[in-house]
Amino acid sequence: MTLTPEQEAEIAEARSQTRPTLRAVSEGMERRLYLAHPVLDHGLVRVIDYMGDDAAITQAARVSYGRGTKAVSNDEGLIRYLMRHWHSTPFEMCEVKFHVKLPVFVARQWIRHRTANVNEYSARYSILDREFYIPAPEHLAAQSTVNNQGRGELLEGEEAARVLDILREDAMRAYDHYEGMLSQEGQKGLARELARMNLPANVYTQWYWKVDLHNLFHFLRLRADAHAQYEIRAYAEVMCQIVKDWVPLAYGAFEDYRLGGATLSGKAIEVLKRRLAGEVVTQETSGMSKGEWREFEGVWG
Question: Active site at which residues (predicted)?
Fold first, then answer.
């Protein structure tokens, strides 16, 4: 990712201006404000604004007048209780607004999380930049033979080179045609809202994405997971580090109970009880389907 000198100057100016406030602020998030964190080859994530901190979560849970209890351990215990028991509204008291630059195909996956406010850069009014996502060789993989949604073995040698050449050439050709259709030199030029339809799904777009912490945790639980598609996971992992600085107590509970935890079905709990009692349980005697059993063994062996 490269920022223009003008963009870097704009960020520096925004960060140089400080204002007195009575609002609760997170020192960790203040250090993150406006900074552009690179993702993929041309993408970025940066925080534009936020509201609330760990104390806002506990304050809402207690419906108190102040900023919660004095003892951090009490607040941490309450936040862990709320996370452990799937309470949602206290976490909704915190909000954050991100500026994200991302490939269109990642945006289409991202937008399925319908619990946020989104305003995307409009190619009806503006002209998109000549920027495309081209995977690094270590992320160029064949289709998985066991998972219709996943990747398998890496492409290597001539096949990898051929695929990368196709991706680059098709993207550049499409953008050349996009510019050619827009041009008003010796012609009327096609409307921007029509010319954009010819661009490939790896062209970069940008948006502002505002979400509360509860729904952000849901997004991160799915998209920072090891099974998520690499490209959207790369964004989620950067956002995890930002959230960790913003609400360290809440993120610690989220990391423990969501990212590092596992949800068990009634059948899975029964199998564990039978195993602890010394019984040898197989898939055939577990009452689980082959898919359920495979996932159960992936966590519990």
Answer: 223 (involved in ionization of n3 of dump, leading to its activation)
Please tell me whether 109 is known to bind a ligand.
yes
122 is in an annotated binding site: yes
223 is catalytic: yes
Q: How many CB atoms lie within 10 A of CB 202?
A: 19
Q: Which phi and psi angles does 48 have, rounded to 5°? A: -95, -35
Which residues in 127-170 belong to E strands, given as ranges? 141-143, 151-154
Q: Indicate which residue of 19, 168, 173, 223 is catalytic.
A: 223
The string of pLDDT tens digits covering residues 198-238 is 999 999 999 999 999 999 999 999 999 988 999 999 999 99
Give the pTM.
0.90
Question: Would you say 145 is a known binding-site residue?
Answer: no
- Residue range 187-203, pLDDT digits in tens: 999 999 999 999 999 99
